[in-house]
Amino acid sequence: MPIVVNLDVMMAKRKISAGELAEKVGITPANLSILKNNKAKAIRFSTLEAICRALDCQPADILEYREF
Q: Is residue 47 pLDDT above 80, yes or no?
């Protein structure tokens, strides 16, 4: 998939655990894991907005397009 989720990189930069981020965003740790591991087929804008708010970042800090 050419869209890569760099959520783990931003989480490390912000020193926040998966459990803490899931709680702040309001999603389950399992769904956060799906996002982190590039297994997600889609993401709601409301979820992306909540992640960006919690990590104080822009969507481009999390999502990347790579042509393989």
A: yes
